[in-house]
Amino acid sequence: YLVDVLPTGEHLGVRLQQRRLRAEEVLEITVEVLRALAEAHEHDIVHGALAPPRVIFEPFRTLEGEAERIKVQDLGACHALQLPAVAGRFRAPELEGNAQGTAAADLYALGVLTGTMLLGAPPATDTVEFPNAPPELAEPAGRPEGWPAASTGAQ
C-alpha cells in the first residue's frame, strides 16, 4: 500500500485553466517544486510523474490571515509502485517505452512545467510551439555571443 495526504487545495492544472500566471508566481512555483525535487533526489527518490495536477496549492492560516503552501503530490509514487514514468508532454524523451523516471527526467518535466506556466500551454508535439507565446519569444534567441558553436555529434 502507498499512503499519501489527501490534498485540500487546488492543483496547478486548475489554476492554469482559470487564469494566466504572473512571472513572479511562475518563479515562486518553480523554485518550490525545485526545492521539493532537490530534497527527494538527495534521498534517491524520483517523482517520475511531475505534471500540473501534481503541484498543489495547500491553504493554511497564519496570524496575518490566509496563505498557501506549494506542495508536490505523489513524490516517489512511481518508484514505490514500480510504475513507468509519466507519459505525455511532460515525459523526458530518453524515457522511451516503460522506463522508470530519473532525476534528470524530473528536471525535464519541471522545465516543461515552467514553460507551460509562462506560455499558457505545454508543447503539443516534439516540435515545441507555443501559439500563445508573447511576441518577443516567437523567434529563437540563438546562441549567446561568445558561446562555442553547437556540436552536431559528428566526429
Present the secondary structure layout.
Elements: E1 10-11, H1 12-18, H2 23-42, E2 55-62, E3 65-72, H3 77-80, H4 103-119
Antiparallel strand pairs: 1-2, 2-3
Helix pairs in contact: 2-4
Question: What does this 3D model show about the protein?
Answer:
- This protein is an alpha+beta fold and 155 residues long.
- It is 31% helix and 12% strand.
- It is built from 4 helices and 3 strands.
- The protein has helices at 12-18, 23-42, 77-80, 103-119, and strands at residues 10-11, 55-62, 65-72.
- Strands 1-2-3 form a 3-stranded antiparallel sheet.
- α2 packs antiparallel against α4 (103-119).
- The model is unreliable at 150-155 (pLDDT under 50).
What is the rounded Rg? 17 Å
Question: For the residues shown, what is the average pLDDT?
Answer: 74
Instruction: Give the count of helical stretches.
Output: 4
How would a crystallographer describe the biggest sheet? 3 strands, antiparallel
β-sheet strand percentage = 5-15%
Distance from N terminus to C terminus (CA atoms, Å) equals: 50 Å
- Pick out the low-confidence regions: 150-155
Oligomer: single chain
Shape from CA axes?
globular
**Percentage of residues in helical conformation:** 25-40%
Spell the H/E element sequence. EHHEEHH
Order of strands, widest sheet = 1-2-3
DSSP strand count: 3
By helix and strand content, what is the structural category? alpha+beta
